[in-house]
Specification:
Elements lengths: L21 H8 L11 H5 L2 H15 L3 E6 L5 E3 L6 H5 L8 H15 L1 E8 L5 E7 L4 E5 L6 E5 L2 E3 L4 E5 L11 H4 L1 H20 L6 E4 L5 H15 L15 E4 L5 H4 L1 H16 L14 H31 L8 E5 L2 H4 L3 H13 L5 H7 L31
Antiparallel strand pairs: 1-2, 1-11, 3-4, 3-8, 5-6, 6-7, 9-10
Length: 402
């Protein structure tokens, strides 16, 4: 009976993009690393390892063919060369920009910043005719308080959602990706600090030649004569390592501090490994000598394609199909990025696979030739074969006439 007198427990406020927790705001928008270095995307690219990682990933993906295909009810694909979006996707997505350049810009922003944006221009029929990358600093995001959807403001003007292509990286909400330079700011900030320390070391490190010390007070004339006498006997490639006789209380002094003893080089090497791990790039791709045994390089490259590049390619394909094609178009059209060239093994392994596929009846001669970038041999190359000796166990294979 007294339940109505009890105060109802106040519902806990759930953090979301419209009212984020303090840690989320700090993670997304604060760039100050624990080393005291302010990490921004531009500053991060000043680290050679970061630049190499972003460059390797973006160049690999931008070199892949991007095209649109007709999709049959059975799932077969045919290149849609007569479709209005074919040239837009495969050759010239934006004014004065090729497909490779547009993909490179988008992937670079996606890998480095966690998000990439492009402005879509459509014709009267709704077909996309231009895909123009947007500099991330020119776009602002506003989160709808009810639907939690994003509104895009480009150069202070709100743009319809169907005119924006938004590629997202790692994310906990699926609405906006984490900025890699912010999430890895401590690792990248340490790399910047190490670069500054090494530069300062060589800039300010005064390294002297031979040093002679004396407990006596020598006059300027005596110092000059000793220097001249010592240099005349021991200076030069032909005079090195001769025995020196020191008189009048002179003693040799050796400068002990060195760059190697500072261990900056070892720390930088370890930091390179940390950055490479952050971006998922094997050290062999970063021109790091002896990083991977030669026998394991091919396997490492294949793992890079399947573990690092393929997830990015799949996310781009899905975003393109969702943003560029209407629901009706997606029933008969599909946009994809061909990764076959990256997944190829060496020639011996590749040709062995072709032989197996040919003998099993999976591949025709023309399909094999096109996979290798060669033209077909006409209709005769479209036929498939099967071994004549395939038969149930214990039976005799039928002859050709039978």
């Amino acid at each position: 009976m007294l339940n109505f007198l009890k105060k109802k427990k106040k519902a806990e406020v759930q953090a979301n993009l419209s009212s984020p927790d303090e840690w989320l705001v700090d993670a997304l928008f604060s760039g100050l690393s624990s080393s005291g270095v302010n990490v921004t995307p531009v500053a991060a690219l000043g680290v050679s390892t970061v630049y190499a990682c972003v460059s390797v990933i973006s160049k690999a993906i931008s070199s892949l063919p991007l095209s649109i295909h007709y999709l049959s009810p059975e799932g077969d694909r045919q290149l849609a060369v007569d479709h209005p979006m074919y040239n837009t996707l495969s050759l010239n997505p934006s004014k004065n920009m090729t497909t490779s350049e547009v993909l490179s810009a988008m992937v670079s922003n996606l890998v480095l910043r966690g998000n990439a944006y492009a402005l879509l221009s459509r014709d009267g029929l709704g077909n996309v005719r231009q895909i123009t990358p947007i500099e991330p600093s020119d776009i602002q995001l506003q989160v709808h308080s009810v639907t939690n959807e994003l509104d895009y403001i480009v150069n202070s003007k709100k743009v319809a959602r169907n005119r924006i292509l938004h590629l997202k990286g790692l994310s906990s909400s699926g609405v906006v990706g984490y900025d890699t330079t912010i999430m890895a700011r401590d690792t990248i900030g340490l790399a910047i600090a190490l670069q500054d320390d090494i530069s300062t070391f060589f800039k300010n490190g005064a390294k002297m030649g031979s040093i002679l010390m004396s407990d006596k007070n020598l006059k300027a004339e005596q110092v000059a004569k000793l220097r001249e006498a010592f240099d005349s006997r021991h200076k030069g490639s032909g005079e090195s390592y001769k025995t020196a006789i020191l008189t009048d209380g002179l003693k040799p002094y050796t400068e002990r501090f060195s760059y190697a003893e500072s261990q900056l080089g070892e720390q930088k090497k370890q930091n390179t490994q940390e950055i490479a791990r952050t971006f998922g790039v094997p050290l062999s791709k970063l021109q790091v000598e002896s990083a991977t045994p030669r026998s394991s390089v091919e396997e490492s490259n294949r793992d890079f394609v399947t573990s690092t590049l393929r997830p990015i390619v799949v996310s781009i394909e899905q975003a393109l199909n969702l943003s560029l094609l209407s629901p009706a178009q997606r029933k008969s059209l599909v946009i994809d990025i061909d990764m076959n060239s990256l997944l190829r093994g060496n020639m011996e392994a590749r040709y062995a696979a072709y032989r197996t596929g040919r003998e099993m009846g999976i591949l025709s001669v023309n399909e094999i030739r096109r996979s290798e970038g060669m033209n077909g041999i006409g209709p005769i190359g479209d036929g498939h074969i099967q071994p004549l000796n395939f038969a149930p166990l214990g039976t005799t294979p039928a002859s050709e006439n039978e």
